[in-house]
């Protein structure tokens, strides 16, 4: 008898049941306040997270199910050649349609939160929460090496088009939240360079500081006249007067 396999079997069977339930939009309840203990979530933000969770996760699971792709196995870390890009792109329009219908019954602030979260990886976040829940039974994010695949869940829709579809005023004076999870910050990346520039316009990010973090963003913002190389050099010097290497870490700000 293989004790290891016998021990793991119930857990694996439970995960597969959750996967099948998820395809049919039967999802385990997640306590977002417990997941993000270090973030003070209000009722608006909780409603936005739950709306994304209920709509985005089943659609993603349907794609994986159609491709007979098991997100709980090690092959999930190497999605190349599985047709996921095309399949998930097709599901994005379905997600937009579902959220359009949902947003008709939501107030302006909740719609704005959904819009803001989606542009910065909200669909990725709720999928990580689903994985964490079904793997451990706890309210936590799955932090295994799933990033290569989960980045495919970043929506590609342009920010203004998404705003129009969800009935959102882009310039409304509402918060754009960041979520702390251990030493990680979520909702801190963008689905496009256009979105990065918009969040500078909205005052969420400083153009110079953001440019120091990501070279692609820097080139785009310089080309658009948001920042100059001289401003970047001045800030770099102010933040790192001794010129210590890697003191200001680069970050991939784009999905």
Q: What is the structure about, briefly put?
A:
It is built from twelve helices and two strands. The chain is an all-alpha fold and 255 residues long. A hairpin with a 2-residue loop joins strand 1 (179-181) and strand 2 (184-186).
User: Shape, please?
Assistant: globular
Instruction: Please indicate the count of domains.
Output: 2
Largest sheet: 2 strands, antiparallel
Arithmetic mean pLDDT: 84
Which strand order do you get reading across the main beta sheet? Answer: 1-2
Continuous helix count: 12
Into which percentage range does the β-strand content fall?
A: under 5%
Provide the fold topology.
Blueprint: H1 3-23, H2 32-35, H3 43-66, H4 84-103, H5 108-119, H6 122-136, H7 147-150, H8 159-166, E1 179-181, E2 184-186, H9 193-201, H10 207-213, H11 215-223, H12 229-239
Antiparallel strand pairs: 1-2
Helix pairs in contact: 1-3, 3-4, 3-5, 3-6, 5-8, 10-11, 10-12
Question: Would you mind describing this structure in some detail?
Answer:
The structure is a single chain. The chain is mainly alpha-helical. The chain folds into 2 domains: 11-23 and 31-188, no CATH class; 190-255, no CATH class. It has helices at 3-23, 32-35, 43-66, 84-103, 108-119, 122-136, 147-150, 159-166, 193-201, 207-213, 215-223, 229-239; strands spanning 179-181, 184-186. The chain has a two-stranded antiparallel sheet with strand order 1-2. Helix 3 (43-66) crosses helix 5, helix 3 packs across helix 6 and helix 5 (108-119) packs antiparallel against helix 8 (159-166). The N and C termini lie far apart (45 Å). 35% of the residues are buried. Mean pLDDT is 84; it is low at 1-10.
């Amino acid at each position: 008898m293989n004790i290891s396999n016998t021990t793991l079997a119930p857990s694996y069977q439970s995960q597969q049941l959750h996967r099948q339930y998820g395809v049919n939009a039967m999802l385990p309840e997640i306590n977002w306040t417990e997941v993000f203990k270090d973030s003070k979530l209000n009722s608006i933000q909780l409603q936005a997270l739950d709306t994304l969770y209920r709509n985005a996760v089943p659609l993603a699971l349907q794609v994986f199910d159609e491709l007979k792709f098991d997100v709980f196995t090690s092959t999930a870390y190497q999605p190349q050649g599985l047709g996921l890009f095309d399949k998930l792109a097709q599901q994005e329009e379905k997600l937009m349609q579902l959220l359009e219908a949902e947003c008709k019954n939501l107030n302006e602030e909740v719609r704005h939160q959904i819009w803001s979260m989606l542009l910065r990886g909200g669909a990725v976040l709720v999928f990580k929460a689903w994985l964490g829940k079904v793997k451990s039974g706890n309210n936590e994010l799955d932090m295994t090496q799933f990033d290569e695949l989960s980045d495919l869940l970043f929506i590609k829709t342009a920010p203004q088009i998404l705003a129009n579809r969800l009935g959102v005023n882009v310039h409304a004076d509402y918060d754009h939240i960041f979520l702390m999870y251990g030493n990680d910050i979520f909702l801190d990346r963008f689905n496009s360079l256009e979105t990065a520039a918009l969040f500078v316009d909205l005052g969420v990010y400083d153009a110079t500081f953001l440019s120091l973090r990501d070279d692609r963003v820097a080139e785009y913002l310089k080309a658009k006249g948001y920042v100059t190389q001289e401003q970047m050099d001045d800030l770099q010097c102010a933040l790192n007067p001794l010129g210590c290497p890697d003191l200001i870490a680069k970050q991939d700000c784009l999905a």
